[in-house]
Amino acid sequence: MTATPTKKLRSRAWFDNPENIDMTALYIERYMNFGLSQAELQSGKPIIGIAQTGSDLSPCNRHHLVLAERLREGIREAGGIALEFPVHPIQETGKRPTAGLDRNLAYMALVEVLYGYPLDAVVLTIGCDKTTPACLMAAATVNIPAIALSVGPMLNGWHKGERTGSGTIVWKARQMLAAGEIDNAGFIKLVASSAPSTGYCNTMGTATTMNSLAEALGMQLPGSAAIPAPYRDRQEVAYETGKRIVEMVAEDLKPSDVMTREAFLNAIVVNSAIGGSTNAPIHLAALARHMGVDLDIRDWQEHGHKVPLLVNLQPAGEYLGEDYYRAGGVPAVVSQLMDQGLIHEDVMTVNGKTIGENCRGVEIEDEKVIRPFNQPLKEEAGFIVLSGNLFDAAIMKTSVISEEFRERYLSNPSDPNAFEGPAVVFDGPEDYHHRIDDPSVNITAETLMFMRGAGPIGYPGAAEVVNMRPPAYLIREGIHALPCIGDGRQSGTSGSPSILNASPEAAAMGGLALIQTGDRVRIDLNKGTADVLISDEELAERRRKLEAAGGYSYPASQTPWQEIQRSVVGQMNTGAILEGAEKYQRIAQTMGLP
Ligand code: FES
Ligand code: MG
């Protein structure tokens, strides 16, 4: 059945415009050249884009090539015509220097496609870390009806009877290698055990986080985010998603109807409950700005910090993606939060119902994996937002603070939740790798390790490097984590309680540019402060000298895009977007249709 559109479809400006018969003919003949008919193109059926993020270069999302077949069947059955096209590939673990560099590139390119071609709506095939925000950001800017389809996580990894989780196993294997417990071959074998099937990271890394948040924002069909990639349910929901996007055209249900400020606040609350990635605040800030929604980094502490950790997934907990799905996925988590009044229930979602209607009464199927609200894994598990003379804003993920870390740094009876120590400063990940095990660097159990030159400008796209392992000699003494502070990011699969995403970065002459090895630094989680303990005069003097020397230096760009992005990218606390791009909003409505 073809649903009856409520307003003229934008694709008619290409395919059915009698006032410009020359162009209409040209548009039609070329889309006929692979077998579509004139009758179809002029039938008034909505043209649905499938923004394809999967390819051989992006294995996390590659299964979307298969799912697209079921999407097409759903689209066709509901009365639409599918046109599939590639999105610039972004494989988190494949792209040098960083996948972060390509999020804005894929965003910008997808905006051009959605705006400039005869598309009435789009299915966003999301998955690997940056593909989700890139696609959602573009849909927000253009604001045609859009629905997201997650590719789903890989099956659980196993090694010697224990779950091995994506990324998280790497941090463990690094420590085992440093301690001499495994060799290089053992390292690769252990890490590869975590990737047993198609799909994205099976931990609560940035991918599972962002896919869960895409559902919490209302942009995916309820219950669909957590379905593992190879499950038959994943095929089924692809079909349902295809059908639904055609109905959304008839209803004119657009991203701006779904992604309201209340939807973002829901996502922040859900992020705390799932133990979500430290990349989420960057991507949600970017998405909100392109959507034209006010969202401040402080909203994460105000609305998210007190929320408990309910989902027992690695790195904060024990389980993996399959367990998360079987336990009930996002709706089971939202239902627990709704019972406490923590969710704005009236927010509209892509299935045409509110999040309250979708999630009310959804039961937890396995309480080991998703805890009831009154039996959480951790209380107050959201992010803390810190500021001081080192940066205006940085965040700390409290859900991954280990007992060892808590006892050593946060349990001083006269000064709880605060600690001080001497800084050791690394300029970029290469400097860290060269010097970390050099005893003359003199890293001790008291040291606070700093990573700078790793932000959106300094290391184009911002490197995931702030979670630094201590030197091997300290690990052998049983010290598994030192406080890490930096202007880079870290993988969502890391269990390190780093202070990261510091903005402005050293390369933008933030306070981190001025710190020197040996300076004492004080971190106070109660007050939310991070300060180097030197006078304002001394800091100002250092700044004068550094500016006179040409500022904080960082490596030259190696590609045209690195240079372009570095010249316009903002800082992470405001989403690291292409500054200026946010003024283009809801642009599909500016088409000037006849
Ligand atoms: Fe693609 Fe983790 S590397 S989701
Ligand atoms: Mg990552």
UniProtKB/TrEMBL annotation:
Q: Would you say which domain of life the source belongs to?
A: Bacteria
The chain positions of domain Dihydroxy-acid/6-phosphogluconate dehydratase C-terminal read 368-576
Q: Please tell me whether the keyword Iron-sulfur is annotated for this protein.
A: yes
Which UniProt keyword terms apply here?
A: Iron, Iron-sulfur, Lyase, Metal-binding
Which molecular-function annotation in GO is an example for this chain? metal ion binding
Q: Which family does it belong to?
A: Belongs to the IlvD/Edd family.
The protein's name is: Dihydroxy-acid dehydratase
Q: Give the organism the record lists.
A: Sphingomonas desiccabilis
